[in-house]
Specification:
The complex is a heterodimer. Chain A is an alpha+beta fold. Chain A has 2 domains: 98 residues, Roll (Ubiquitin-like (UB roll)); 129 residues, Fumarate Reductase Iron-sulfur Protein, Chain B, domain 2 (Orthogonal Bundle). Chain A contains 9 helices and 7 strands. In chain A, a hairpin with a 6-residue loop joins β1 and β2. The longest helix of chain A has 16 residues. Chain B is an alpha+beta fold. Among the domains of chain B are: 134 residues, Flavocytochrome C3, Chain A, domain 1; 134 residues, Up-down Bundle (Methane Monooxygenase Hydroxylase, Chain G, domain 1). Chain B contains 17 helices and 19 strands. In chain B, α3 runs parallel beside α6 and α10 packs antiparallel against α11. The two termini of chain B are 36 Å apart. The chains are: A alpha+beta, B alpha+beta. Chains A and B meet through α1, α2 and α3 of A and α3, α5, α6, α11 and α12 of B. Bound molecules: flavin-adenine dinucleotide and FE2/S2 (inorganic) cluster. Flavin-adenine dinucleotide (FAD) binds next to α3, α6, β6, α7 and α12 of chain B.
């Protein structure tokens, strides 16, 4: 199988970037998309060129480190999939495949397809936790949690932090990411104590990091590999208003 | 003989006695002490957050862009704890028994007991931190069973247990970052250890964005760098998982224990092409209802549905009638290998066996099967494009977990004073075979509960020594060595890629040092690996520069260490002339082909010292005062 890759190359954060074309032969349908890029990189090494920098670690859709635009869509052509789970069988033989990094002001480019997503970590740093020290926990079954509550918390907690929601939002909003963490914790009795503080601090940090505001287009939900629902955003906004009142 | 520093008293009191006897450090003094933690997985993040809460200043490192991506995130199945919530006769003692037996009596009683003892409070801890574990309608926690045991003691959060535990630990890490007690260095890879007066006092790390080498100083160094099964190249580990930190410290004096003990998981997806970079694990829970088979005829190219019942060989059910498809991992993997090697493998590369749900669907109905395994079937379809409700899955064994690692004593300290190893990167509680759902547990309790207690004995004596700075000549010396190592690699400028050599290494390791080993193969492997090492340093080509983000260079540096580690793994496997757990030496088997352990001569932990490229064996005798070693039978 053959493909032509059109890939964004950029030496560093301050450098000019441009697309470059690479014709690649010797691909198979069983190869994952990232293995096709590995294959291309091996050829670049043979040609004495610098490899294309791109991100991955687990290559099984859970660590959230991979993530590029493929033909204009975050994480490529399939629904509910990360970049590392895309396989070449999703493309036609000889297809032109355009590959770009996440584009968002809060995600500066480091090199080629690699961006800096540490802004997401800083949102978590501002309240995306329960303030309980090691050694202070009561017996686990002492506090009951109804199954539907626990399931709802789990739905939100499934976020892998890849940043596709931000990248596919025209305002580059991190509302889906932020609301998922808030709802995970605020739905649990253990997280209730700090619920208002959490909403206020995390959303404030989200704005400080330069993410845009959410206008409910729903684009993020479509691209989220974990299928996290935008209802989370609505709930976050409601509890934020309430928390502000009480502040 | 090595001294593991086991505390006094009966098994049940050892940990308590240890705590009673150990030194304390007052809060004012803790503030003056600095600790480096390399790794942000369950072990590293748990230790960093807890040490910071206690008042120490922590510097935590990981190679990923965020601490949340450590490979603990990938664990699906669950975490064990002896809570006995199911009222099915579980207890600390039974968990201790299962783990020691599962490890085929090649681990330390005192450590294993402590693992079981601390499991229950760990679940309390994670619930408190907001882990959304599965619940019954009434609101209590759910348990399920997992391979190799007869009670239900596994806690889980959907199919994403590792992710949920790790995210809880990561959140606590950031909580302490905000409190300015933790400084985080993401995208930093530890390259070497710095010793001053024989003690671990710092590290050299490479900033993966700028390529710059940086020096970090502390009063103690903790390694929590995870497993090294990427030495096989194809494994269930993340692509970046490496042995660099433990290997470099091994070369500086830390003993390496049981390096060849590797768990091969029976239910991964098979390799489909040369270009394949990793193998995806399918949860073991599939074996609860799926039946494993191969055709009775060699090279049978018919479609699976065209092969009638009587021409199918359900080889696990045939060989292990009482455990059947639920035989432990090592047994199931070896049985699959036996069939595949004998020419009964299926799939395009003839390297797989079938895992069939036809009978389960007939027996339980499609809906139940979908409810139980829907996620996994979806995942299977994503990767293979095949709908497993219609035709059987193809699965194959894959390298998965390293029981071996840096040798540590009861305090989790290595043979280098002030250097600790926690989580998967140490050898400790799993012996020759790890039980499913026991390693999230081990990584977590090492980090949260054990190390923050045991490190005091060492640190209490550091206060008088005063602090060091990175200006010390030892830093200068090691930094230059690291720089030269990198330069040397870039200067080879050969014709072959890093992946080329990694594929070669992987093939040899998989053939000779995985599920089944023999003297001839291992001896040959050592010669072959030495040859690959030679040609690597003569023919590898790494493009780009040192002082920039260079992913090819990162790979090359990791592979250089794997090539050395592989030699030690083969040496270790060769030395142990018995079969135990995952270590199966073909020369030592019963007539029925089962493992033949030799307690007379091999009831010890092999701990290897590095001596200028030579490996010297030290032994830690294993004594079993509480359980008599029995034959591990699953027939
Ligand atoms: C696919 C899969 C499924 C599993 N399922 C289960 C399960 O269901 N139940 C169970 O109990 N266990 C399971 N395990 C095993 C378990 O997940 C691991 O043993 C455990 O999570 C290891 O945790 P850790 O903290 O030791 O290492 P990791 O989580 O791997 O963390 C290693 C850390 O070290 C850092 N690091 C590594 N090298 C360097 C370096 N040179 N410099 C700087 N930083 C470095 C990494 O960045 C990372 O932060 C599974 C394992 C796999 C691979
Ligand atoms: S590489 Fe981990 S999610 Fe894709």
């Amino acid at each position: 199988m053959k493909a032509t890759f059109k890939i964004w190359r950029q030496e560093g954060g301050d450098a000019e970037g441009q697309f470059r074309l690479y014709d690649v032969d010797g691909l198979t349908e069983d190869m994952s998309f990232l293995e096709a890029l590995d294959h291309l990189n091996e050829q670049l090494v043979q040609r004495n060129e610098n490899v294309i920098a791109f991100e991955y670690d687990c290559r099984e859709g859970i660590c959230g480190q991979c993530g590029v635009f493929i033909n204009g869509r975050a994480h490529g052509p399939n629904d509910a999939m990360t970049t590392c789970q895309v396989h070449m069988r999703s493309f036609k033989d000889g297809e032109l495949i355009v590959v770009e990094p996440w584009r968002a002001a809060a995600f500066p480019i480091i090199k080629d397809l690699v961006v800096d997503r540490s802004a997401l970590d800083r949102i978590i740093e501002h309240g995306g936790y329960i303030s309980a020290k090691t050694g202070t926990a009561p017996e686990a079954n002492a506090i009951l949690i109804a199954k539907d509550k626990a399931d709802k918390a789990m739905d939100a907690a499934a976020c892998i932090g890849c940043g596709a929601c931000v990248a596919s939002c025209k305002n580059a909003s991190a509302a889906l990411f932020t609301s998922a963490k808030i709802n995970h914790l605020n739905n649990l009795p253990q997280g209730k104590q700090e619920a208002s503080k959490r909403v206020l601090e995390m959303t404030r940090q989200m704005e400080l990091e330069g993410f845009g505001s959410c206008t409910f287009t729903g684009a993020c939900e479509v691209e989220c590999p974990e299928g996290i629902s935008i209802i989370n955003i609505a709930e976050m906004n409601a509890s934020r208003i309430k928390a502000k009142w009480l502040e | 003989m090595l001294d593991p520093k086991i505390p006094r008293g009966p098994l049940e009191h050892k940990w308590r006695n240890y705590q009673t006897d150990s030194q304390l450090i007052n809060p004012a003094n803790k503030k003056k002490l600095n600790i480096i933690v390399v790794g942000s997985g369950l072990a590293g993040a748990g230790a960093s957050a807890t040490l910071a809460e206690l008042g120490y200043n922590v510097q935590c490192f990981c190679y990923q862009d965020s601490a949340r991506r450590a490979h603990s995130v990938a664990a699906q199945g669950g975490i064990n704890a002896a809570k006995n919530y199911q009222h099915d006769g579980d207890s600390i003692w039974r968990m201790f028994y299962d783990t020691l037996k599962g490890g085929d009596f090649r681990s330390r009683e005192a450590n294993v007991y402590r693992l079981a003892e601390l499991s229950a409070p760990l679940i309390d801890h994670f619930v408190q931190q907001g882990v959304p574990f599965a619940r019954e309608y009434g609101g209590v926690l759910v348990n399920r069973s997992f391979g190799g045991v007869q009670v239900q003691r596994t806690f889980y959060a959907r199919g994403q247990t590792g992710q949920q535990l790790l995210l809880a630990a990561y959140a606590q890490l950031y909580k302490m970052k905000r409190a300015k007690k933790v400084t985080l260095f993401t995208r930093h890879e530890m390259m070497d250890l710095v010793l001053i007066n024989g003690k671990a006092r710092g590290i050299i790390a490479r900033d993966l964005v700028t390529g710059q080498l940086k020096r970090f100083v502390a009063d103690a160094v903790i390694l929590a760098t995870g497993g090294y099964s990427r030495v096989f190249r194809l494994s269930t580990l993340a692509i970046g998982c490496n042995a660099t930190a433990i290997w470099k410290t091994h070369k500086r004096g830390a003993y390496f224990a049981a390096p060849s003990f590797t768990q091969i998981h029976p239910t991964a997806l098979p390799q489909t092409s040369e270009a394949q970079s990793k193998l995806t694990l399918m949860s073991e829970s599939l074996r609860n209802d799926g039946r494993i088979w191969v055709p009775k005829k060699k090279d049978d190219n018919r479609k699976p549905e065209a092969i009638p019942e009587e021409e199918r060989d359900y080889y696990l059910e045939r060989r292990y009638p009482s455990f059947g498809n639920l035989a432990p991992r090592d047994v199931a993997s070896r049985a699959a290998k036996e069939r595949i090697d004998s020419g009964y493998g299926v799939g395009r590369l003839k390297n797989a066996v079938y895992l069939d749900f036809k009978h389960a669907i007939e027996r339980l109905g499609l809906k139940t099967v979908r409810d139980r395994y829907g996620n996994l079937f979806k995942m299977y379809q994503k990767i293979t494009g095949v709908n497993a409700y219609d035709e059987p899955m193809q699965i194959s064994p894959a390298a998965h977990f390293s029981m071996g690692g840096l040798w540590v004593d009861y305090e989790l300290m290595t043979t280098i004073p002030g250097l600790y190893a926690i989580g998967e990167c140490n050898f400790s509680d799993h012996g020759a075979n790890r039980l499913g759902a026991n390693s999230l547990l081990q990584a977590s309790i090492d980090g949260y509960f054990i190390l923050p207690n045991t490190i005091n004995n060492f640190l209490a004596n550091c206060l008088h020594e005063g602090s060091q700075t990175t200006e010390h000549e030892a830093f200068e010396k090691i930094e230059i060595q690291v720089e030269n190592h990198i330069k040397k690699l870039l200067m080879v400028n050969g014709t072959k890629t890093v992946d080329h050599f990694h594929r070669e290494l992987g093939k040899i390791m998989w053939q000779q040092c995985a599920m089944s080993r023999n003297k001839k193969g291992l001896t040959k492997a050592i010669i072959q690996i030495t040859a690959i090492q030679d040609s690597f340093w003569k023919e590898v080509k790494v493009t780009g520069r040192n002082n920039e983000m260079n992913t090819e260079l990162e790979k090359a540096l990791r592979l250089a260490d794997f090539l050395e580690l592989a030699l030690l793994m083969c040496t270790d496997a060769l030395e142990r002339e018995e079969s135990c757990g995952a270590h199966f030496r073909e020369e030592y088997q019963t007539e029925e082909g089962e493992a033949l352990r030799n307690d007379q001569d091999y009831a010890y932990v092999s701990a290897w010292e590095h001596n200028h490229g030579e490996f010297k064996l030290h032994k830690e005798a294993l004594t079993f005062d509480n359980l008599k070693p029995i034959v591990r039978s699953y027939k």
